[in-house]
Amino acid sequence: MPGAEQRWPARAALLLVLIAAAGLARGQETPSGPPPRVAMVVGNSAYQNVPALPNPAGDAELVAEKLWESGFEVIETVDADRETMLADLATFRSRLREGSEALFFYAGHGVQIGGRNYLLPVSVAPSSVEDLKAQAIDAQLYLDVMAQSGARLTLVLLDACRNNPFLDMPSDGAEAIATRALSIGASRAAVERGLRDLAAASRGGLAEMSAGRGEALISFATAPGQVAFDGRGRHSPYTSALAGSIDEPGLELVDLFRRVRGAVREATGGQQIAWTASTLESRFYFKPPADDLRSATTGMSTGSDTLGALPPRRVVDRTFWRAIRDTDRLDAFTAYVRTMPDGAFVAEAKEKIRSLGGDPEAIPVSDLSLPERPRGFVLADPAAQADLAATLDRAPASVPIGTGAARIGAAPDRAGWVHVAAAPRLGAVSAGGTRLEAGSVRWMEADQPLDYLPGIGSNGGLDSLRAEALREGGTTEPVEAAVETYVDACDMLAGNPYDSQRVTAGTRQFILDRNHDAAIAVCEIAVARHPEVVRFWAELARGYRAAGRYEEALHWQQKAVDAGYASAMVYLGQMYLDGQAVPRDFDRARELFEAADARGETAALTALAWIHRAGVGVPEDPARALDFYRQGAARGNDWAMTNIGEFYQKGLSVARDPAEAVRWYTAAAKSGELTAQTRLARMYQTGDGIAVDEAQARFWFETAAGRGVPNALTRLGLMYEQGQGADRDLEAAARLYGRAAAEGDAEAWLRLGRLEASDAPLFDRPERALPLLEKALAAQVPGAARALGRLYETGRGVTKDLARARALYVQEAGANPWAARDAGRAFASDEGAPADPAQAARWYRAAAEGGVPWAALDLGRLYETGRGVPQDRTEALVLYAAAARPGGDARAAEAARRAAAGYSAEETIRAAQLLLGRLGAEVGAPDGRIGPATRDALARVFAAQGRAAPGTRIDFDLLAELSAMDEERLP
Fold it and tell me: What CA–CA distance (Å, rounded) separates 557 from 569?
């Protein structure tokens, strides 16, 4: 079977990738460590139509930080609408593996209806019980996702048992809900009845839940059916107790929740008792004992298998500020304000900017042409700021991971034997070059320095050494050292997921492109503070390259290459390939790629694949390129997997195989590769060689949208707008378009503008549409000129200007036949400018030739009346037939039938003879009579279609059929 032999290498490579991933997921012994830990953390405070809650968003951010420091990959969702919660759930689902340790935390409003628990997004505005079910999210969905993933362990933590938000609802909230319901057709009486039903149906507290057959623990802030307190401080009693307990190393889960229960009971005076249900059989630690590998960071396990997103907001905020606070760099503080406009230290940053001669109010942080997004929880709140600021210097010493050892203290002032009671978890302490192990006894000289070396593979946190000096007479003297180890801001913002020497999971290029100013600032600071750390040189070069500052990128890439840094070889090679700050030199690029490959860099394999694929410096050889991609994929490189998927999708050097493309794209998408996620979504959406699957399309668009990919947000919004894979939801579509537009996605400007210009309920806001459509037009987005032309033609949101409308329609008419039809209508109109029937006929003709049936009808009317063209009823009837072609627009066909109703039988026969002539049949001059030539022509034309001749019947239906056969241009 030659075909099978040819397919084997691709399937073998994919099998290796999947086997490796499965082995990691099951937690088998591998050099890369334990199974992944993945958490989704949601906190909703800023409710728009029901009572807001002060603490859930802050609770979520605190828990997200603690989980990240415990090695979890965290999907953090704060003050989210329904579509955002579902998109982040899709991202969560995509990151779960067989054998994962999965956790879901929720803080916010939750209600119980009919024994089901519903979690409320901030956008919820129900006017009935059924509305609530549609707008909220059933909590069981999160449990089912984890159970179906094959996760080894499932943890569900719900701090959502606050009071029923529909009881004693504030009048402004009730009125907002009523206004929305009335605008979409509900009656006032129905709304009032629905709100009463909601208050009665929504029971206080949450119902018990099931987590499936695996090992699971479900924890409620209070007992089922009871109500929890939001708390008087910054955090709820439950979250405060939980976060404090997560921080303690070696605390097993059962003991942890026993402690949480006691702390909550004490904090509430016995009024609230935390409740758990567990089917656990094995032990679990958030921060395991020192010898447990589960302290390793998820995303460091293999190749580039990483979410590639920034850490939780509190972590980024603290780390960014720690890096810049003691500098006088205007660019650094400006980047902080731009990227963290709600950051805990934004007031101090703005004051610094002023003192350095800058203007903080001139820093663009939002687009005023976009709808304002609800402003929810902000770290800049004074209480939040104080809470986060207190963690800045939480240990006497702090050491960035991957920068070498640092002095954290000294031995006692008298020499002697020292017993090490507890060694650090996240690094190693040494004295005189000897590592101090737990349980060991070492002789130490007086005031001997203690050096701490952070371990690579954790996200850092608080660490300590506890020892005792043994003195005469059996007495002891404590020897203690505390340290915080952390991921440096340069690694956090510019770390490369494809760098084999990275110290954290890394940041995907798309995120770096959005934050390169911040990355450059913190990496320049890191290089100045740690000039010997070559990794920072390469990361600084990555930031410069993302910003287009190629001369500076070249300098630091070359320095890193000269120092032997393998990842820098790949990116310096790419600069030679692209001619960035150097003349193009394909041979030099290939040498660098080969050198990096010899040092184990998988990105070098994708670079070598590219030069053979494109034929730059070597003969074009797609088969050789595919071989390099397969080598990279077998070593876990998800960009290599994506490219293999493209080869099978397009049939490059292999037979086109959409199913194989889907398998490769899926492997890459699950690894976190964003391009693969969007390509996979489009294949499912369009049915590109596979069955259309709107649910899968939506899932992968949601997965990419959950990471903020702008066009994925737009495409997901389009699915909501068109009701693909879910009920139609224009409000969700508008919110998604708004988020994408805020990130600069030009298509989103168009789609949001068109929605705002529509007459749909809740929208019809053309004044908002105008600036959006102007932006889309400036970005040359197809469809923008047409949409803007309609505003000018109708005078909606702008002064009516028919001449401007005509110009806009013509601008797009060459590429869009529907715009050509609009141009025809505008030239036919005399409302605001003299009509120009000849131009109308010209553009109607172009639109009709482009397949627009309504344009054929419009042009037919001009021929019928002789406006802009010679009067010709036969031509008119032929055009009406074109508008009524079988399988076309039913409404256009019906309008064409009405237009043709007054035509005689002779005129109909003459039109048929004209169409037969265009089809190449000899009928002589059209005479309006059915003679032998006409009958013979009909027989031949229909025989060519494999159909029986229609006999002597010539009517409008036959004209429409003949028009459908006509492949020539319309008259």
Answer: 8
The Cα 825–Cα 506 span in angstroms is 55
Using a CB cutoff of 8 Å and minimum separation of 24, what contacts does 895-904 make? Answer: 895/854, 895/857, 896/853, 896/856, 896/857, 896/860, 897/956, 899/857, 899/860, 899/861, 899/864, 900/956, 903/873, 903/877, 903/956
Give residue 370's pLDDT.
Answer: 58
DSSP-H helix ranges across 530-585: 534-546, 550-562, 566-578
Q: What are phi and psi of 116, to 5 degrees?
A: -110, 145
Q: Are 177 and 127 in contact (CB under 8 A)?
A: yes
The confidence score (pLDDT) of residue 367 equals 58
Rounded Cα gap, residues 84 and 573, in angstroms? 39
pLDDT of the residue at 20: 43
What is the spatial distance between Cα 882 and Cα 874, in angstroms, rounded to a whole number? 13
Least confident of 61-70, 219-228, 815-824: 219-228
* Euclidean distance between CA atoms 971 and 957, whole angstroms: 20
Local confidence band at 297 (pLDDT 50, 70, 90 cut-offs): low
Instruction: Render pLDDT for 301-311 as a digit per residue (tens, 0 to 9).
Output: 445 577 778 89
Radius of gyration (Cα) for the chain, nearest Å?
Answer: 34
DSSP notation for 429-477: EEETTEE--TT-EEEE-TT-EEEEEEPSSS-EEEEEEEEEEE-GGG-EE
Q: Which two tokens stand for residue 105?
A: 């935390």
> Which structure tokens are listed for 28?
């088998």
Is residue 7 very low, low, confident or very high in pLDDT (cuts 50, 70, 90)?
very low
Average pLDDT over residues 105-119: 91
Judge whether residue 161 has pLDDT over 80: no
* Residue 579 vs residues 588, 592, 653, 947: alpha-carbon distances, Å: 11, 14, 28, 61
Overall average pLDDT of the 835-839 stretch: 96
**Number of Cβ within a 10 Å radius of residue 906:** 12
* Dist. CA 471–CA 413, nearest whole Å: 12
Instruction: Determine how β-strand 110-113 pairs with β-strand 116-119.
Output: antiparallel
CB 729 within 8 A of CB 720: yes
Higher pLDDT, residue 236 or 968: 236
Predicted confidence at residue 2, as pLDDT, reads 33
Mean pLDDT of the chain: 89
Can you say whether the dihedral through the CA atoms of 230, 233, 234, 237 is positive or negative?
A: negative
Span 115-127, average pLDDT:
92
Tokens linked to 920: 């190449």
Q: pTM score, two decimals?
A: 0.87
Residue 157 β-bridge partners: 105, 219
One-letter amino acid at 191 equals V
Name the token pair of 259: 């402690």
The residue assigned the tokens 């059996």 is: 474
Amino acid at 880: Y
Look at residue 299 in the predicted model and tell me its pLDDT: 54
Sequence-separated contacts (24+) of 687-696 with Cβ below 8 Å: 688/649, 688/658, 689/649, 689/656, 689/658, 689/659, 689/661, 690/658, 690/659, 690/662, 694/719, 694/724, 694/725, 695/725
Give the tokens for residue 905: 């039988």
477 and 53 in contact (C-beta within 8 Å)? no
CB 66 within 8 A of CB 32: no
Count of residues for the chain? 971
Residue 922 confidence (pLDDT) above 90: no
Least confident of 174-188, 690-704, 803-817, 850-864: 174-188
- Rounded to whole angstroms, what are the CA distances from 789 to 425, 797, 830? 65, 12, 16
Residues 6+ apart with CB under 8 A from 896: 853, 856, 857, 860, 880, 881, 883, 884
pLDDT 10s digits, 772-786: 999 999 999 999 999
